[in-house]
Structure formats: structure tokens, C-alpha cells
Amino acid sequence: MASSLATLIVSSSFFVSFILVLQLSSFPSCRADVGTAASYSAPYLPSACYGREATEFPSSNLFAAAGDGIWDNGAACGRQYLVRCISAAQPRTCIPDQSIQIKIVDYAPTATTLVLSDKAFGSLANTSAALINIEFQQV
Ligand SMILES: *[C@@H]1O[C@H](CO)[C@@H](O)[C@H](O)[C@H]1NC(C)=O
């Protein structure tokens, strides 16, 4: 009796960890973090990463300034992130099922995770919002 109970416990915990491993491996979004994003407008130069050099800016205009949380003392320059809008104070602010890839080109001394270019922000959300909640993941 006792030994079959032990077997049951061992096998069910094995089963639970098996399910957990399956979930971790099949959902890449598990590696994503959540944060906030605001936006900024031109002029975008000079930038903390590239000075007056505009050639480092993606031609898509999908770029951002890194906030204090991810600036990493300048190491964030050139990093690329996949960004998705998850919510905002005002309902229906996020454009559904939109995710974009942005490049860090500047520094924003703020607690906001990312300060997105107008183009990047407008690709994710209604631009009448000042702040959105995001899911982001370095690529
Ligand atoms: C954007 O938000 C404003 C203010 O909430 C609203 O009046 C407007 O209709 C929204 N625009 C779109 C395209 O949803």
C-alpha cells in the first residue's frame, strides 16, 4: 500500500515535470519580459549611441531609446528587441496581434523600459496613448 502510494507520487511528479519541460520548450514567449513603452519624435539626432550618424538607424524607422532598466551602461546600443503591446490604461489601445522588431539607438534617462520612435509606437498602439505595457524579448 505504502509503496504503491510512493510510486504514484513519484510518477505523478515526473509527469508534472515532463509537462513543465514541454511548456518551456514550446513557448518562446517564456523568455520575454514585461515593461512599459513611451514614444519620442524627431529630431532623433544626435543619439547617445551613434552621435550625428544617421546610417546606423534602421530604414524602417523602427527604433527606440533604452530606458535605465535595459541601457546597460551603453551595451544596449545596437541590440534588437521584439516588442508587443499587451495593455494600456485606456482599453483597446493596443493594435491586436502586432509585434515589431526594433533596434536600440539611443538612451532615455527614465524608468520606462523603451522610448519608441513615433513610427514604432504607432505600429503597436493608438498614438493618443502616452504609455503602453509591453512584452519584449531580445533577438
Ligand atoms: C485612439 O484613442 C482616442 C482616445 O481614446 C480615440 O478617440 C480614437 O478613436 C482612437 N483611435 C483609434 C484608431 O482607435
Automatic annotation (TrEMBL):
Q: Could you name the domain of life of the organism this protein comes from?
A: Eukaryota
Sorted alphabetically, which keywords does the UniProt record give? Signal
Tell me yes or no: is DNA damage among this UniProt entry's keywords: no
Q: Output the InterPro entries linked to this UniProt entry.
A: Expansin/allergen_DPBB_dom (IPR007112), RlpA-like_DPBB (IPR009009), RlpA-like_sf (IPR036908)
Matching PROSITE patterns: EXPANSIN_EG45
Is Transport included in the keywords of this UniProt record? no
What Gene3D superfamilies would the database entry show? RlpA-like domain
User: Which ranges carry the Expansin-like EG45 domain?
Assistant: 46-139
User: Span of the secretion signal?
Assistant: 1-32
The cross-references to Pfam families, in alphabetical order and at most eight, read:
DPBB_1
| PANTHER family recorded | EG45-LIKE DOMAIN CONTAINING PROTEIN (PTHR47480), EG45-LIKE DOMAIN CONTAINING PROTEIN 1 (PTHR47480:SF1)
Q: What is this protein called?
A: Expansin-like EG45 domain-containing protein
